[in-house]
Design goal:
This is Heme ABC transporter ATP-binding protein. It contains 9 helices and 10 strands. It has helices spanning 40-48, 70-76, 92-98, 110-122, 138-152, 175-190, 204-210, 228-231, 234-241, and strands at 2-11, 14-24, 29-33, 55-60, 63-64, 77-80, 163-167, 196-200, 213-218, 221-227. The strands form 2 sheets. The protein has a 6-stranded mixed sheet, with helices on both faces. β7, α6 (175-190) and β8 (196-200) form a beta-alpha-beta unit. α3 (92-98) packs parallel to α5 and α4 (110-122) crosses α5 (138-152). The longest helix has 16 residues, at 175-190. The protein starts with a strand and ends in an 11-residue tail after the last helix. The structure holds adenosine-5'-triphosphate.
């Protein structure tokens, strides 16, 4: 689905991404782990097209990312970035509706409304749909942003597979919602098999439980990419995080 071929990205001579190659298969959750400053968010920004690699290529379903028109891309690719800030007072429903903008011209259709309602119900924010987004707590805002990106990729797009990019989506959530959200993502994928998810997380337990593959990054490079149990070994964790763990992380 997504193919990175030896991509590098640097600013003022500093490598933020250095020679990264990886394939992300469709229908799977791929989670990126690594210490602060390893280049995880940069990788997400390269895959989303926000940054352009200085070297190497990125292909989405065998098409060069740079050849995909932005408007087409937005119909099948949604991004939940770290920055959830909005400076004007929109209601929760209006924020979720932003996810539908690539799908309609001028006025939202009944279908767009229905999809927003379903997405708000999925993330337990339906009851607060008329609230001012700016008045919400950090965790509530994060659930609204989940509803927005899911509204964007709610339906299959003919001839395209859907892609969801999540950059530290769990930061503001309590432990209940962290697991709840990951379970909802998994359940959604069971009935939406064309979807691929690539996300950045910091919690090794969450990665062990929900990732199909894990990318371990350090110092702008990809250290390891593979099935979660292959990657989350004591040795790999020590190499990258300099932290001793007792055993490999088990899926429970
Ligand atoms: N615009 C920029 N100019 C210079 N350096 C940058 C710029 N953007 C990011 N960096 C640096 O690139 C490195 C990688 O940043 P990135 O945000 O990708 O890391 P990360 O792995 O997502 O880190 P974290 O876990 O802390 O969010 C960091 O050292 C960061 O300071």
């Amino acid at each position: 689905m997504v193919e990175l071929n030896n991509i590098s990205y640097s600013i003022k001579g500093k490598h933020l991404t250095n020679g990264v190659s990886a394939n992300f298969e469709k229908g799977m959750i791929h989670l990126i782990l690594g210490p602060n400053g390893a280049g995880k968010s940069t990788l997400i920004k390269l895959i989303s097209g926000e940054h352009h690699p200085n070297a190497g290529s990125i292909k989405i379903e065998e098409q060069n990312l740079q050849d995909i028109p932005l408007k087409t891309h937005a119909k099948f690719r949604a991004v939940l970035s770290q920055n959830l800030a909005l400076s004007f007072p929109l209601s929760v429903k209006e924020v979720v509706m932003m996810g539908r903008y690539p799908h309609f011209e001028g006025k939202a259709t009944t279908l767009d409304d229905e999809i927003c309602v379903k997405a708000m119900q999925l993330f337990d924010i339906h009851e607060m749909q008329n609230r001012n987004y700016l008045s919400l707590s950090g965790g509530e805002k994060q659930r609204v942003q989940f509803a927005r990106v899911f509204a964007q990729i709610w339906q299959a797009v003919p001839g395209k597979s859907r892609l969801l990019l999540l950059d530290e989506p769990l930061t503001f959530l309590d432990i209940y919602y962290q697991y709840d959200l990951m379970k909802k993502i998994r359940d959604f994928m069971v009935v939406n098999a064309d979807l691929t998810i690539i996300g950045v997380v910091h919690d090794l337990n969450i990665a062990a439980k929900y990732a199909d593959t894990i990318l371990l990054m350090d110092d702008a490079k990809l250290v390891k990419h593979g099935a979660n149990q292959e990657v989350l070994t004591k040795e790999n964790i020590y190499t990258v995080f300099k932290v001793e763990v007792e055993n490999r992380f088990e899926v429970v």
